[in-house]
Amino acid sequence: MENENIDVSQEEPKMLFHKKQEELVDILCSRTGSDDRNFFRIMVAYKFSELASNMRAKVTYAGTTGIPVNMYALDLAPSGYSKNASMNVLDKEIFGSFKEKFTLETYDKVKELRLALLADEISMATGVEVGEAYKNVSKDYKSLPTFLYQFGASTIEGVKALRTKLSMAGIGATNNILDEIGHNIIENKETFKLYFDTYDLGLSKSKLIKVDSNQDLRGAVPCNLFAFGTQSRLLDGGLIEKTFFEFLEDGFGRRFMFGYVDKAKKKKLTGAEKYAMINNPMVEMQIKALDKHFECLADDAYYDSDFVINQAVSEKIMDYQAACEERAEHLKDHEMILKAVIEHSYWRVVKLAGAYAFIDDAPEITEELVDNAIMICEESIDSFRTMLKREKPYEKLAKYIGDVDKKITQVDLVEDLTFYRGSESQKRDLMNLAIAYGYSNNIVIKKTIKDGIEFLEGDRLKEVDNESIQVSFSKDITTGYETKDGKFEDLAKLVTTSGYHYCSHKFTDGHRKGENAVKGFNLLILDIDSGLPIDVCKTLLKDYKYLIATTKRHTEANNRYRIIMPMSHKLELTPDEHKRFMKNVFEFMPFDCDEQAADIARKWQCHSGEHWFNEGKNIDVLPFIPDTTKQVRQKELSNRYTGVENLQRWFLMTFDEADGRNNMVLKYALALFDDGMSSENIRHSVQSLNAQLEQPLSDIEIENTVMKTVIRKEFEKEQE
Questions:
Q1: Which residues sit opposite 58 in a β-bridge?
Q2: What does each C-alpha distance from 41 to 73, 328, 376 come to in angstroms?
Q3: Pair (491, 571) in one structural domain
Q4: b/e 206-220 (16+ beta carbons within 10 angstroms → b)
Q5: What is the rounded CA–CA span in Å between residue 456 and residue 439?
Q6: Backbone angles phi, psi at 197, to 5 degrees
Q7: CA dist 203 → 160, 195, 292 (Å)
Q8: 145, 379, 556, 661: which one has the fewest Cβ atoms less than 10 Å from its Cβ?
Q9: Phi first, then psi: what are they for 635, rounded to 5°?
Q10: Strand 501-503 to strand 469-474: parallel, antiparallel, or no bridges (unpaired)?
């Protein structure tokens, strides 16, 4: 019988995180009420490496012997994330017995054996009696600072002295736990430079450690660094952040494991649930069992473990290295730090797999342990990517100004924003970046000066949904205005129904007057009574979405109509701002508009005349908002063409490089043709427009393309 329904294909086994590590992460999540595991995984992985380093665990890989098991890690999380509380749980409840046994028993035991060995070596080399040599060595050892299991802020002299002591002892590691890295990175700058050299093999540049006045001794001491703190303090957009990224560029990027929590995710628990979670007897039993397990690892039987990576496992690591290098090749030149982080991930895998082997009391590093390490290293890369994509200070500033529903001053910014610090020039630069960010992300930031004080006002703009266009209408001229949102295409039904009036704004109590206008509109309405032919208007606005509807005064000889256009963004303007906004729109348009339309409470009478729709883009209204960067730039662009005929100015200001110069000149020529101009006069006007371009078209190109089309249309019109 055939097993048709049985799938016998072999799937790749799914990589998992290290089992004992996940047990500890579960405990920390339970104690802190957090669901974010990445931060705690990096913390636990560091502690595993710290234990292995103190016992001088090593790895032999690809012909390199004596690779110390150690780790540099950076863990960032928001304030209130229980960073210190989590570290205290690990140090006191889970690894406390290891530390006690290590510092009170194993360290001294190994140290005495090591000093005796040094005395023998010195005696053989110099002829000094062994007892005297031991006395001198012991004296030198005791003259050095007291051994510290771990330390915080430090000086480079202090770290070097501790490394000398540990080199003589032959056991232990320098374990630097640096809380609030943002506060301490600059004052520990020189110490960090020392850590550049000690990461790979535990050796500083000199590689020579002085024992007495006449002898030098080579000695590798593993170095561990765990830096943690808040993003806001380290990534402040100023000198601290600059210093940090300089370290990453110089080489810390490839050395660090990264944990990054953007926003704390705390479980929502009742008091009873929280108490039960913290005081879970099963968890307490688990902690005691783990504490006992780690205490055993402090026994001198585990000292100087050497984990050899066999060929099969080495090939797995090398395949991972090749895959990382291939990924890094596709990164851009400006992503050099990320490239280094990815390219050297394999080396961090080697060291972390050694830590896992030590924790598991494994005889060698297995493929499973390498998989466990790869999982953490990949998560570390993801965390670093997240850190690079974090919300920058200027983004936060722009969003703050956009969200505050009032005018604010520099005092408000200093009081409310922790990152808004530094000199006047630094704050000015940050503000300029915020304005530039807002410019590209639809956050309008307006500056005004009153009595010498600068006021800032912002607004986050929402893109207009053409399925939800706001319009108010009534049969009465002044009262009874009802506001509804509907499809733009449905507006034709309203504006061509005689007996009604319509407006773009909503009014309090339906009473149409300026002071009753509710902020917020998404429809631009222009009144054209200058006689501009509708066909010309269509040509000029062919790129935009619009509805053109004739008025009751419209005639064939004297075209009168309204142009109704959905806006790119909904705007909330005061009556004065609306008037200035509309004035900017009028100046932009290539034809005359009735300026009474600038009134925020302006109404238009419906008329059962003709109407035309056009599909295109919503008109971008951001350059017309008063007191904004975009409006200033729009004004500067307009001023460049001062003295240029209005229609030419329109085409020059709306020119899109992607559309091409030839198309732009052709559109201009066709607009003139629709207005009834002869081909000869069009030629002169086209030449005038072409002269305004930075890279004008050649006369031959104009004749063979633009004028050829105009003359053909002129001939076709004559034949009608």
A1: 68, 306
A2: 11, 25, 8
A3: yes
A4: eeebebeeebebebb
A5: 15
A6: -80, -30
A7: 11, 9, 33
A8: 556
A9: -65, -40
A10: antiparallel
378 and 401 both lie in a single domain: no
User: How many other C-beta atoms are found inside a 10 Å radius of the C-beta of residue 692?
Assistant: 16
CATH of the domain at 273: 3.40.50
- Host domain of residue 480: 466-625
Reply yes or no on whether the pLDDT at 51 is more than 70.
yes
Beta-strand runs (E) in 404-475: 443-450, 453-460, 469-474
Claim to verify: residue 443 and residue 384 sit in the same structural domain: no
Least confident interval from 167-171, 588-592, 620-624, 653-657 = 653-657
Does one domain contain both 324 and 424?
no
Model pTM?
Answer: 0.70
Q: By the 8 A CB rule, do 96 and 89 touch?
A: no
The pair of structure tokens assigned to 242 is 């600059």
What is the pLDDT, as a whole number, of residue 459?
A: 84
Contact between 474 and 505 under an 8 Å Cβ cutoff? The reply is no
Question: Is 667 part of any domain?
Answer: no
* The two structure tokens encoding residue 84: 């210190």
Alpha carbon dihedral 500, 505, 510, 513, in 10-degree steps, equals -100
Residues whose CB falls within 8 Å of the CB of residue 275, separated by 6 or more in sequence, listed in order? none
3-state secondary structure of 454: strand
Out of 575, 607, 625, pick the residue that ends a domain. Answer: 625
Please give the mean pLDDT across all residues of the chain: 90
Q: How far apart are CA 187 and CA 152, in angstroms?
A: 12
Q: Are residues 555 and 511 in the same domain?
A: yes
pLDDT at residue 511 tops 90:
yes
pLDDT at 611: 96
| CA 358 and chain centroid, separation | 37
Mean pLDDT calculated for residue range 643-656: 82
List b or e across 554-563, with b for residues whose CB sees 16 or more CB atoms inside 10 angstroms: beeeebbbbb
Element (H, E) at 529: strand 521-531
Residue 70 has φ and ψ, to the nearest 5°, of -155, 170
Q: Could you tell me if residue 670 is inside a domain?
A: no
Segment 515-568, tens digit of pLDDT: 999 999 999 999 999 888 999 999 899 999 999 999 999 998 899 999 999 999
Domain end (from 625, 640, 675): 625
Pairing of the two strands 306-308 and 58-61: parallel
Both 84 and 227 in one domain: the answer is yes
- Of 511, 497, 506, the C-alpha closest to 552 is 497
User: In whole angstroms, what is the distance from residue 457 CA to residue 398 CA?
Assistant: 10
Look up residue 523 and give its two tokens: 């429809």
Read off the tokens for 288: 């005691």
550 in a structural domain: yes
Task: State the alpha helices, DSSP H only, in 89-205.
Answer: 96-101, 107-126, 130-143, 156-169, 181-184, 189-201
- Residue indicated by tokens 């906004």: 581
Distance of CA 299 to the CA centre of its chain: 46
pLDDT at 644 over 80: no
Show the beta-strand stretches assigned E in 231-375. Answer: 256-260, 306-308
18-33 burial string, b = 16+ CB within 10 Å, else e? Answer: bebbbebbebbbebbb
Query: Taking the mean position of all CA atoms in its chain, how far away is CA 126?
Result: 62
**Count of CB atoms within 10 A of residue 319's CB?**
11
- How far is residue 677 CA from its own chain's centroid? 54
CA-based R_g, the chain, Å = 37
- Report how many domains make up the chain: 3
Other beta carbons within 10 angstroms of residue 66's beta carbon come to: 13
Task: Tell me the per-residue pLDDT of 151-180, one tens digit each, with 9 for 90 and over.
Answer: 998 888 999 999 999 999 999 999 999 999
In a domain, 375, yes or no: yes
Tell me the percentage of the chain whose pLDDT exceeds 70: 95
User: 370 with 503, same domain?
Assistant: no
Kindly state whether residues 58 and 96 are assigned to the same domain: yes
pLDDT at residue number 366: 97
